[in-house]
Amino acid sequence: MYERFSDRARDVAELARRQARALRHWYVEPGHVLLALLDDGDAEVLRQVGAPAEALRAALTEALGEGTVEPGEYLPLSGAAGGVFERAPREADRLGHRLVQPFHLLLALLATADPVLTDVLTRTRADPGRPPAPRTAPAAAETHVADALATATGPRAPGPPTPPADHDPYVWAMS
Q1: What is the pTM assigned to this prediction?
Q2: pLDDT digits over 32-72, tens only?
Q3: Distance in angstroms (rounded) separating the CA atoms of residues 29 and 44
Q4: What is the C-alpha separation between 172 and 27, in angstroms, rounded?
Q5: CA 12, 15, 16, 21: dihedral to nearest 10 degrees?
Q6: Do residues 77 and 118 touch, judged by C-beta distance below 8 A?
Q7: How far apart are CA 5 and CA 143, in angstroms?
Q8: Fewer beta carbons within 10 angstroms: which end of the chain, N or C?
Q9: H-type helices in the chain, by residue range?
Q10: 151 and 108 Cβ atoms separated by less than 8 Å
């Protein structure tokens, strides 16, 4: 599966397993892959489209939660996480690249439309009207990530206010 993956992309796969193990999960989910990308340093691409890495990391860790069982030696990929690693070479092909880089994993991750990731990305996106961060990623990469992020999270429409943390969700939904 990892024949075309660069060393950095393979490192992301291993980092995702470490993230899952640190959260005491017994399998790797797409959220662990995004946490691994944040640790790998590709968070700069996300920052340029308005998603602050620190907020993403905190929201992802909260959304994934902590498991209750010590994971075993081998952590399998969930179906969705496996789909990310299978789609990444297609993203590289689409862009005319031979090797799969972490950037391609990010594009594949955004294309999965995982509900946890979609919710976290929607909640943590900064105001799209703010000035962009300094350019460090290629313009083409930034455009592809921005398009994928917009597709994954949909348009930013004003929604209902977020309930306070101590508010009963059932009562909030019924009000």
Answers
A1: 0.69
A2: 999 898 887 655 556 655 667 777 888 888 999 898 878 87
A3: 22
A4: 33
A5: 170
A6: no
A7: 22
A8: C
A9: 7-22, 30-40, 43-48, 53-64, 79-94, 102-111, 115-124, 139-153, 169-174
A10: no
What sign does the CA torsion over 157, 154, 32, 66 have? positive
Residue 101 CA to residue 14 CA, distance in Å, equals 14
- Best CA proximity match to 121, nearest among 18, 49, 15: 49
3 state SS for 56-94: HHHHHHHHHCCCCCCCCCCCCECHHHHHHHHHHHHHHHH
Q: Is residue 13 a contact partner of residue 85, using CB atoms and an 8 Å limit?
A: yes
Query: Do the beta carbons of residue 38 and residue 57 sit within 8 Å?
Result: yes
**Greatest Cα pair distance in the chain:** 54
pLDDT in tens, 13-22: 999 999 999 9
The residue to which tokens 């962009």 are assigned:
132
